[in-house]
Amino acid sequence: MAVTAFHWSNFLIRLVVAFVLVFATYNPSGNSWIHWFIQSENKLDPMIILSAVVLIIGWAIYLRATARSLGFGGSVLVIALFGSLIWAMIFYGWLSLDNKSMLGYVALSLLSLLLAVGISWSHIRRRITGQIDVDDVETDV
Questions:
Q1: Least CB-packed of 6, 14, 56, 111 within 10 Å?
Q2: pLDDT > 70: percent of the chain
Q3: Per the UniProt record, which residue ranges are transmembrane (predicted)?
Q4: How far apart are CA 80 and CA 85, in angstroms?
């Protein structure tokens, strides 16, 4: 029998994993897989390939779960919400377009949040509405 309880700590774990996945792939500081690959003389270094495969597996899990739970329309709505949030931050002077690094960190953080919400959406919706997904129903057959 699967555990169906979902707590905020479960969401935070998924959020931390999403942050690690996104920021390990790319970040403005220059310490990321993309920078490592570009600066490497040996593009076929086994550690570069191994880490690429691990990142691809992580991205596949998160993107597939987000696509299945939020769908295309839901993902577009979340992106529109986050885009509006960034626009408001720029409009009210909390974020400057001149500071590309900070803009990158905000965008990558919001992408991590999108992935964490996407992978957790079925649980979040069940807690909000009381509805369950067909995949969650267990039978005694």
A1: 56
A2: 89
A3: 7-26, 46-63, 70-90, 102-121
A4: 8
Rounded-to-integer distance, Cα 2 and Cα 127, Å: 16
| First-last CA distance in the chain | 13
Count CA atoms closer than 13 A to 70's CA, side-chain side: 22
Cβ neighbours for 8, distance < 8 A, ≥ 6 positions apart:
none
Q: What is the pTM of this model?
A: 0.82
How far apart, in whole angstroms, are the C-alpha atoms of residue 116 and residue 19? 9
Structure tokens at 129: 């509405």
d(CA 6, CA 22): 24
d(CA 102, CA 109): 10
3-state SS assignment for residue 43: coil
Using one digit for the tens of pLDDT, what is the confidence trace for 82-139?
A: 999 999 999 999 999 999 999 999 999 999 999 999 898 877 777 777 776 665 555 5
Distances (CA, A) of 111 to 9, 11, 80, 99, 129: 19, 15, 12, 19, 25
Whole-number Å distance between alpha carbons of 121 and 135: 13
- C-alpha 79/C-alpha 94 separation (Å) is 20
